[in-house]
Structures are given as C-alpha cells and as structure tokens.
Input
Amino acid sequence: MHVILRTFSVCSLGISLACAPLLVNAAPPGAYPAVSASPRDMSSYVPYSANQLDNLLAPIALYPDPLLAQVLPAATFVNQIQEAAQWVRTHGVSGISYQPWDVSVKAVAHYPSVLYMMNDKINWTTALGQAYVNQSTDVMASIQRLRALARSAGNLVSNQQQQVIVEPGYIQIDPYQPQYIYVPMYDPYAVYYQGGYGYGQGFQDSLISFGTGFIIGAWLNYDCDWRDDRIYYTDWRGDGWIARSRPYIQITTVYVNNRYAHIPINRAVLQRTVNVNNLNSYASVHRNVTFTRLIRTRLLANRNRRVGNPLVNRNNNMRGPQPGQLRAGQNPLRAVSPHTAQPAFRPVQPYRTAFRPASRPYRFNPQAARPAYRPSSRPYRFTPQSARPAYRLAPQTFRSSPQTYRPVFRPAPQSYRPSPTPYRPVPSRTRHPPHRFK
Output
C-alpha cells in the first residue's frame, strides 16, 4: 500500500513537471500582466448597440488593417496613451522602443497624428477600449459594416496608397507601397453615404484623402483576421503586404518576439468613467442614435448594489434578508408567536442616513469652548511703556559750551501802539531769546 501511494506521488510530481512548460508558454513571464476586472465592473458595463458601435468606430473603420490592429489594443491602455503623447511632443519619435509601454502603444506612437487624436479624444478612446474588451466580435463586425457602406458609396477603392481586397464576407485594406503606410482622412458622414465627384472619362475621385506617408517598421506586428473576427500576431510571416514590406524593415526583438503571440489587453479600462454626453457628437452614421441612455441603464443596473438600500441585509449587502428576519417596513406584530409577546422574527435595521454622534459619551471640552482670539498665558500687567505716546521728544541737555543747541522760541505777538518815535518791538515778559533788542 505504501509503495502504491509513493508511486502515485512520484507520478503526480512528474505530471506537474511535465505541465510546467505548457503553463510558461501559456503566460510568458515577459508578457504584460493583464489586469482582471472585478465582478462589479463587469456587471456595471452596458454593451453598446450595433448602431452605437457604428458611430463609435466610424473615424477609424477605414484605416489600414495593420494600423487598425494596433489602435484597438492600444485603446485599452489609456494612461500609456497620455504618457506617449507627452513624450512625442517633447522628444519626438526617438526612444519610443525603450519606453515601458505596451507594444501596441509603441506602434501607435510612431504615427503622431493617430496618437494625438487618441489623446485629445480621451473619452472616445476609453469607450473604444471598453468596447474592445467586452465586445471584440461586435467591434470587428461593425468595422465590416462601415466598410461595406463606404464601398457601396464608391469611396473605398484601391489607389497608390492602399489596396482594397474584397472577399466573400469581409473587406480587407492593406498598404500598397512596401515602405510607407498612409493614414486616411475623411468626413465620416460623407464617406459612408455620399458618392465621389466625377471628372469625366469614368474617373471618380473618392472623399478620402491621404497625407504624408509614414514609414512601415517592425512595430506593425499585428494584423486583422477577418475570417475569425480577431487580431493576431503575424511574426512578420505571410504574404500580401507583409511579403512586400519584409525586405525593407529591420527585425528587432523589441517588436518581433514570441511573447506577443498572446495579445495583451488592459481590463482596468473598465474602471474608468466615460463622459457619455461627449460621445453624442459621434453621430455621423446614425444621426438618431445617442449614448445618453447608457447613463440611465447603468444607474438601473447598480440600484440594488447601493450600500444604503434598505432592502439589502445589513450584514451582507448582496444576500438580502435571511430567514428569520423581516424586510424593512414589514410589521413585526403580524408575526407574533401565539405563546410569547415578543416578535417571532427580528426585523432588519436599515442603515441610518441621519447624523450619528460618536460611540464615546460626550464630554465638555474647555479647549473647544474658547473663542477664536485668546490673550497670552501670562496675566496682564500695566507697564509705563505701554502708556507712553507713540511720539516722544528726546530729553535735551544744556551745557555751558557755546556750541550747545538751544531751542529758539518764537516771541509773543506784539501789540501795536502809535508812537512818534520809530517803531521798536516791545519785549515780552517771558524769557528773552539770546539776542537783545536795541
């Protein structure tokens, strides 16, 4: 018996050691740690409808697939998008590969126009990241609906900047030039419903314009798989645009690494608050669809989760009233036992919303009763210094020296009296000044 148990323990140890490499490959140590959302965050999320997703994805639905595959995962790292935008504004695109950001954020940072757009519209970026975390399949389906609208309007065509591949069930957009990728610029309302302008000879100019081309680098390591409605890691192996651009790029382990086989997303984006009123401006495809109703829906979903709900048990907010307890507002006299005068059930005490004093008894505190102004601790004593006026004449000393200063007193006013003799001032009877009248 002991031999069998010991053999079983050794076999179980061997199985665990054999499964260890599988677990390491499933979650590589170098991969970005995915943050799991709490059940409360998942339950408070309200899925977007198909029309709301069309309005939300209309600005980027016509982006090339390699760039679109970088924007969707990067939208979940909102904080890193803000840090990357500040870095690019200060230092440019140099040193991006050595920053501690997700590989999708580093890829978007190589294209400043896209990065600034995501940073300036942070509410839209947060809503896009939340939709991609919870509704990735619906997001991919919405992109295909928008591309079909632009294709039917005659605005999504192949040219020198992009290659439009129409397959049964999906539309694929790839870079046409092997070294450069172009970011399309268009009016979402016009490009999905209005046709292009004809210039004769069957040539039709679309409503999509392109700016300066950006360099294709090893950072474009993701692509869109429209058959399975997902984003996958290419490892720079494949045909199409990858085969055209592979000879012109420099492969580095920063972007081409097996740890990116599992595309990381940041589920902590679900904890961020989105100002839904700012999303109402994205109504270019469906004008009569707004995002305001999401506020009321989320409030109804969280109503029973409030702490102060009287219908929720005080000890356990999620379990409700337990057996042997009454609900709040129920009359306890109707449940009186016939043999006792006490209620058979103890009623639940709801949370008090009014002000409650502290548990310790109230004691008079003389410190709190003192007025705001208090004199000094020493008792007040009268000092002659405080009774002196603000201005005092210094004591004057008179010495027998001829240089001694003596104040000159103004003589008293002389009375006028007529006299045949020339007028001479009559000295007053007070102290005479130093000079004599003659």
User: Anything to note?
Assistant: Residues 38-298 form one domain.
